[in-house]
Amino acid sequence: MSMRGLTVFIADIRNCRVRELEEKRINKEMANIRSKFKEGNLNGYQKKKYVCKLLYMYILGWDIDFGHMEAVNLIASTKYSEKQIGYLAVTLLFHENSDLVRLVVNSIKKDLDDMNEIYNCLALHAIANIGGREMAETLALDVHRLLISPTSRSFVQKKAALTMLRLFRKHPDVIPATDWADRVIALMDEYDLGVALSVTTLVMAFAQTFPEEYKGCYVKALQRLKRILIDRDFSLDYIYYKVPTPWLQVKCLRLLQYYPPPEDAAVRNEINELLQVIVNNSQDTPKNVQHNNAQNAVLFEAINLAIHLDSNSQICMQAAVLLGRFISSKETNVRYLGLETMAHLAACADSLEPIKKHQETIIMSLRDKDISVRRRGLDLLYSMCDTSNSKVIISELLRYLQIADYTLREEMVLKIAILTEKFATAYSWYVDIILQLISTAGDHVGEEVWFRVVQIVTNNEDLQEYAAKTVLNYLRSPQYNETMIKVGGYILGEFGHLIANSSGCSPIEQFTAVHSKFSLCSLQTRALLLTTYVKFVNLFPEIKSQVLTVFNQYRHVLDSELQQRACEYMAISTLPTDDMLQTVCEEMPPFPERESTLVIKLNQKQGDTEDKRVWVIGGKEANLERRESMKARMSSIDSISTPTSFTAPEPRPATTTNGNSHMMSAEPDLLGLDDLSISTPNNVQLSSNDVPTPGFEPGYHKLQRAAEGVLFEDMHLQIGLKSEYHGHLGRLALYFGNKTGATLQNFTTQIDSTEALTVISPTPVANVVEARSQVQQLLNIECNEFFRESPGLRISYTSQATGPQRLFIKLPVVLTKFMEPIQSMDGNSFFQRWKQIGGAPRESQVVFKSGSQSGISIESVRNILDGYRFGLLDDVDPNPSNFVGAGVVHGGKAGKVGALLRLEPNMEQHMYRLTVRTTSEIVSEELRIILERSLTYDA
Amino acid sequence: MISAFFIYNQKGEVLISRLYRHDLKRSVADIFRIQVISNTDVRSPIITLGSTSFFHVRHENLYIVAVTKWNANSALVFEFCYRVINIGRAYFGKFDEEAVKNNFVVIYELLDEILDFGYPQNSETDTLKMYITTEVVKSERAVEDSSKITIQATGATSWRRSDIKYRKNEAFIDVIESVNLLISNTGTVLRADVSGQILMRAYLSGTPECKFGLNDKLLLDKDAVTKSNPLRRPNAVEIDDCQFHQCVKLGKFDSDRTISFIPPDGEFELMRYRTTENVNLPFKVHPVVNEIGRTRVEYKINVKANFSPKLYAHNVVLKIPTPLNSAKVEVKVGAGGKAKYAPAENCIIWKIPRFQGQSEFTLSGEAELSAMTHKKAWSRPPIAMDFQVLMFTSSGLLVRFLKVFEKSGYQSVKWVRYMTKAGSYQIRF
Question: Signal sequence: where (chain B) (predicted)?
């Protein structure tokens, strides 16, 4: 085997002091080898020697573009040493797409067929290393034959399994894995643990892609685990520090996690038994580090499996206790794994209680000396956060943010922002925390965070004043923080007028607070601030002169963006009339509803890995959606029914939304914009999409039952309404009365019109409403489908008395408006129909308490039902105090739907039972909702 | 300005490290080693990483590196680096790794003197030699000399002492030109220029005032105008740009194009110049290289000397590249010199020790190629040529006169020598 020429050459190269000398030596050697190869007539030894030299040069990084043929020839040699060098050269010099691979395929095939196992192994090695598509196509069958052949030696089988794995990973479409399922799964029973281990690894890859075809492996893995753990049937060579073949155990446990929990109770018990054995084995910590590692590896995988099967089981409880011990362990790796597994538990378990016990320790782990442990700690805190501990965790995270590692900060900021938004219980708290976050995190706050703050503040009216005040305070503090200035600039520009009357917040003070930081900011921020200033001009004409000075100054800056803004704003502000300025600076409309950008950003950060992980970082709801899609993929074996089926989030009436429902309800978009569930005492859900102007409800509800009346009234404007309905058509007249002494200008209205409910205004409303006068607008309404949402009416105007104003109110157009009462129906026909329709889902029933203090008044109930256009049928119900009504809903294209109603008041308890039966589920529910609300509050 | 100055050897070990400002750490030396010395593909002598710029010059087996955090004048920085090399040569004879290692104390002393807070100071060898010596200094003498040193270092002619005396007053002038040439494979000249330097060795007593004249076109035309002679001299040389030693009075040069100066004692570079027009190429090369199929390349190279037959060229070497996959190369030359294949450099080296003017030589050869896995076309790099021709200037430049005026009015002897050598002299084929 020794080659003197090679040794001398390597020594020469090593002695070269500088690169140039090495290059010269290499060039010389290459020229020599070229001339030798050119001459031909080399014996095997010489060929081997020269190929070795070329390989050495190749390893040093030089280009080798000859000698491949000699390497291929060496493979065909009968001597082992030459064949070996040939294969070595081929695996090093060839890549999967090179044309020369074709030359070797035949030799490799011959070696695979050879009786000599050593040659088989060399060939398998080469296939695994090169692994091109062509090779996979031609040789996969041979590899498979070697794998399943009963005559193959175990070490050949091992290599064959791993070679197959490599080919499958590279070209999954070439390998007919599904056809081989039975034979390959059968090999998992192989007595030789080495073969079993390699085959299990292969099956893990197959099973992830073809779960259905490979479902047989579930039982096999279980049996194998049982043999190892309970029967203790294993060869002694595979005991690693007293743990029997930990690798195989880990792989089997992991394989089990790729499938949904089994339905068969016997199988479940068996698994539980195995897990119990593993947990029992791990009760004490061995002294030996290796032993400990092996034991923990098995244990952690077992815990993961336990969580996967049933996160509320007894074993999980035990595991939680064990994990609690691990996360305070001295060993970094154990702490890391402990935290990670606990995050898994938090992601799946219903109750976070066992984890919360360790909250202190977990928070301490943020101060761990190892950054990866800190990361896991952060993930876990993020996952385990809920309403009860959110304040503690968020304040702890905020404190930690100041000293956190720079690489961690951006992610932390995102997570804190999401948690704050998700668990906010009060406006002020949200604003305080998020602004504190921005001010401490400084440059690590991504753009998304402050965009989000602005969105939320804009969409929640109650937040605006407080936010403006707090932001102003932050701006006054001497530190400089670019993101804070951006938020401040935007919020003050939009909502500065809300606080302008408070002391210390006068327009000029706001302006100086912002402008003092102006010169420190980047160009982009300055551009934003210029926009703020022009809004100031609009909001506070008194500081116009100061602002104009700034514009004037910036008309001459070099940056074209700033210059353009300054010039344009200057021009707008100095126009003879303010019309333009007012239109341009109109208050921003609420942002449309969309998925939280923060969550999108965070998800981008957690790229999926090769392994098809069964859970993601985050709370339970983050995992639900994922599991759902997994289920869909793995269509059956023993799939259990989905534990929670979630309904699309709909606006629910206040009474059904109880105290804590927003917390654990499994809405996939809990972090979505419309669910910033800031729980006010009576927990009114804010629909942040459109924030209706306060005070619209009384008129809205009253006119649902009446044909005419005052819809809305404030200090400046009164809106009256008259209506008539025939079948699915309706006509509305709106009267806008100007109560002020000033003219309302730019008066515009805009009415939502949907497919289900078209609202057409034949003539646009007049643009100007003179002082103390009225304008009229006619609307034609057509109901095409059964609808739920009343159309919105947006009004905007400007007047000297009030400045620009925007109103958003709802028109009292509900489904009952398109109902015709039926007065003539006798008891028999009523109950006949009543029974025809039958119970749920076409029946909608609710039991609820009357809202009025004085008890139920029969008269007002009768009026309400009448107002909602139900035909009241007397003497139909055996109990005279019960109300029975009937009507027909004209749904336009959706056709007519008969509606029957029964209302049973309980005078003593102040309770009602309301039952609505119609031939359409939607109508039943909608009518029930409308009546329920009205009876609760208006009766 | 210059924040730090380093000298490395070829392996990248720091031999000299001097920081002048606090804006850099000593570890910046590692960055240069990693980015430049270990990097195989360095194209620019200036590398800017972040806000730090590294200027480097290679000399012998050294890297001379100046580092700055500022937007420094790069010409000045490079001038400084070359100055360091010249000072080193004047002090130690040769400026290489060994000299640096043996004299590092003196080098640090010199660096302290010639650069202050990153600003270059007096870097005149003569002056420096007065107070930075390599010999033992007796203390009395040092006291006595110190006033002289001050006078000279701050005086009008800081480069020359006043009390120089020679028995025989002599001045030697060497005009050395390097020719750069690049000819395309069709025979058109892509680039031809001459960069020359005029070196002077002055052994003159007192403070002599010298006047120096060349056949510079501008100067001659000016003369012609003043003498109202409309004829233009045909052998006048147009000099594109030139730069002078600091002793030359630039005011006078600007006003009437005369080069007048008080020379430093000993050897110095009086001026440097460059010409791009009417370059006389000393050699014509006519290469014929044919690739026959994929396995053979035939060479036929003809070289002709283009200067007067009375002159000789020395050390003529041609490097003729061979394909990277040459397996066997055979060459034949007639009477002219020796040629052999050098596989280490992938070329044929043809050496002609003595080459008479107007003569010509031919080389014929053949390279056999081996098969390649990836068929890469041969890039056909150019033939490179090296030579020296005495008493010949490619630009045609001649020294017309050198006059020496001194108060004592002594007679002086002047010698002039010309030499042309190859710069990058390349012929594509």
Answer: none
